[in-house]
User: What shape does this take?
Amino acid sequence: MAQQVRDDLRDQMRNGTLAVGSRLPSEPESCEIYGVSRATVREAYRLLEQEGLVGVRRGAGRFVLPGATVVVQGSVNLIQSTTALLSDLGYDPRIELIGVTERDPLPEEATAFGLSVSDTVLQVERAYVSHGELLTHAVNVFDPERLPRPVDEMEWTGSVAEAFGAVGRDISAGITDVSAASLPEALIERYAVPQNTAWLRFDGPLFDQEHQPLWWSYEMWRSDVRVLRVVNRREPETA
Assistant: This one.
């Protein structure tokens, strides 16, 4: 319920109902508006504060911060489906399967999936292309036992997130390390990518709503496609 309240308030920021500088309803007011407890409202507001969308003015309430509407309208959700994310950005993504292989898990993958070094993982390499342009190169690693369908029934040129969602396992959380990276030469040649193109690499696991691992992702994004905005804010000092 807290996430639903948070999402509704974010939508109001997106459509201009809550403009920059607007005061959010007080906790009692939101309890009445949404029919939820004060603890639920407080959690929804905490989530908005964590996202850098809302700030607290002591004695005055919570207000929409400068730049919040830009964050809501233009930011990229790090745990959103790649297909949905690219579509939301106005691209027409097509997934090309490059290869599917079995291999030994890396230590961090074994830890995330609860595997031993004698187990195997499934590595799926794919490219997201729009009108001939490479937008994203993704290497996703799965525990075969945790797939939503048997390996030979998986449709790797479709959305993996939707396949998991169909069995009630939605992406709920993720841990992502972001770094600058160079695209492999084989991909540069395959997709005729200009040599001066900058790329960002996103590495880390994704989890469902029960915090069970879905897959480990190694993704390369063209830097003009996936733009990150970092909000830095100093917390007010307490007396």
User: Anything to note?
Assistant: Residues 2-15 form the longest helix (14 residues). The first strand starts at residue 54 and ends at 57. The chain has a mean pLDDT of 87.
